[in-house]
């Protein structure tokens, strides 16, 4: 095998914002069963290291196009983290102040990253769940005349997945089989935007939607009560706190509702968070691919689909973010800072530089 060479991306980027999207689709070579081919779309390659960079960029630019956002106006949003990091990156690059409201249950590195990117983070009590975060953001927007990003309701969300995520998938699978597309939902932007396009352009592709087994809101069949703008009127009765950060808030988002109403999925497969953690760990240690619990959960579902899929099937699972975002969470609980017995034995096996 000769040495690998690279040639650069063929352009000089005018801004970090121009590096959003065009994330790679990568084949799994070691953890997938032999009868199928499993690919993952690695959204950690975005500059803010998650799928939410896409939405953050379009929320701001759609508002700029519509004249809804004045130069220097403060942006405010309720977010479990990745949207906040994406918005903080976009607002920093474009010069808008940003205030994020976030329940205190989400990982510490998310808060610190947002603050590092120049945002203010206002914590809300975890008992208030996603609804509490949202109502606090709304209250702050109304009291101060700020621009509320409304990721769970805005058209700018699914639209950007239609024009980027889905169009990248179409491009990368041109002339190739694509039998299954697997995704979870947070806002539902990915599921709805990609669903629109796959239904139109690749009707043979089966779309698998997933959600946490202990917060299976869509599976419950219980419709979401909404206020006039489509925001949730109450917490969904099937919700329970779950470990898959970024997935399934305590309501069914309006953005996802389009996918439900138009049958943009063929099967709904709930998955326990523990499975997601197991598969995120396997992706890291056996494929060298870093992803969070939601990516692990999506791959866990892909493996269930693979068991029943016809030989030769091609599957694509979304990996929404990077594993590094979970260092302080249960995903890394089994990863010690100290040396293991085996590592100590290795240290002692040669004379030099042993620890005291
Ligand atoms: N996983 C993670 C880690 C996320 O942050 C999000 C977005 N909240 C998702 C999955 C779901 O993406 P979407 O909002 O497009 O449904």
Spell out the key features of this protein.
356 residues, alpha/beta, Rossmann fold, 2 domains, six-stranded mixed β-sheet, 10 helices, globular, binds 4'-deoxy-4'-aminopyridoxal-5'-phosphate
Quick description:
The chain has 356 residues and is an alpha/beta fold. It has helices spanning 52-66, 82-94, 108-116, 129-144, 155-172, 189-201, 254-261, 273-287, 293-308, 341-348, and strands spanning 25-27, 37-42, 75-78, 98-103, 120-124, 147-148, 180-183, 206-209, 267-268, 314-319.
Spatial order of strands in the largest sheet = 1-2-10-7-8-9
- Number of DSSP helical runs: 10
Number of strands: 10
Poorly predicted ranges: none
DSSP strand content: 5-15%
What Rg do the Cα atoms give?
Answer: 21 Å
What ligands are attached or bound here?
4'-deoxy-4'-aminopyridoxal-5'-phosphate
Proportion of residues in helical segments? 25-40%
In total, the number of domains comes to 2
- What global shape is seen? globular
Q: Helix and strand layout, with pairings?
A:
Blueprint: E1 25-27, E2 37-42, H1 52-66, E3 75-78, H2 82-94, E4 98-103, H3 108-116, E5 120-124, H4 129-144, E6 147-148, H5 155-172, E7 180-183, H6 189-201, E8 206-209, H7 254-261, E9 267-268, H8 273-287, H9 293-308, E10 314-319, H10 341-348
Helix pairs in contact: 1-2, 1-5, 2-3, 5-6, 6-7, 8-9
Explain what this protein looks like in three dimensions.
With 356 residues, the chain is α/β, with parallel strands linked by helices. It folds into two domains: 16-45 and 166-332, Rossmann fold; 52-148, 3-Layer(aba) Sandwich (Rossmann fold), CATH 3.40.50.1100. The chain is 37% helix and 12% strand. It is built from ten helices and ten strands. The protein has helices spanning 52-66, 82-94, 108-116, 129-144, 155-172, 189-201, 254-261, 273-287, 293-308, 341-348; strands spanning 25-27, 37-42, 75-78, 98-103, 120-124, 147-148, 180-183, 206-209, 267-268, 314-319. The chain has a six-stranded mixed β-sheet with strand order 1-2-10-7-8-9, sandwiched between helices. Helix 5 (155-172) crosses helix 6 (189-201) and helix 6 runs parallel beside helix 7 (254-261). The longest helix is centred in the middle third of the chain and has 18 residues, at 155-172. The radius of gyration is 21 Å and the shape is globular. It starts with 24 loop residues before the first strand and ends in an 8-residue tail after the last helix. The mean pLDDT is 96. 4'-deoxy-4'-aminopyridoxal-5'-phosphate (PMP) is lined by residues 50-52, 80, 82, 184-191, 245-247, 292, 294, 320-321.
